[in-house]
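For the sake of transparency, this paper describes our internal protein records without simplification. The remainder of this section carries one protein's record, kept here as part of the documentation:
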Amino acid sequence: MRAYDFTPLYRSAVGFDRLANLLETAARTSEAGGWPPYNIETTGENTYRIEIAVAGYTPDELSLEVKENLLTVTGRKTANDDTTERTYLHRGLAERDFERRFQLADYVVVSGADLVNGLLSITLKRELPEALKPRRIEIGTPKALIESGKTRTKAA
């Protein structure tokens, strides 16, 4: 895979350092292992879902943490308490620890998480503050005022 140098972006764009950091992080994580596999889908205008394949993990072995717009999903596989020794002819199920990070946009919050049939579904919702939501401004018409024989208009 190609390595991209974002140094020119830092030199010429003021205030876009967070964007450049996100691009560098994305380039680094795409080179890392792709385990466990995941899907990101939009389920509505302001709702999203992340599905992560975590077959074999229990809810106690998984943790979700959100800190400063960074969602971290961690899986820590506990030691198997099986007292009998197992002899595997083929062992294809991964029982390793993992950590998967997702950068969240501003005002995106985690609204829930469910583990069903080996899929961890994380529901996300964008909650814009009232000050950022579009609002309708009424347009008024000027009213005429009559003062000492002169006509003057005044805004409503």
User: Anything to note?
Assistant: The chain has a mean pLDDT of 81.
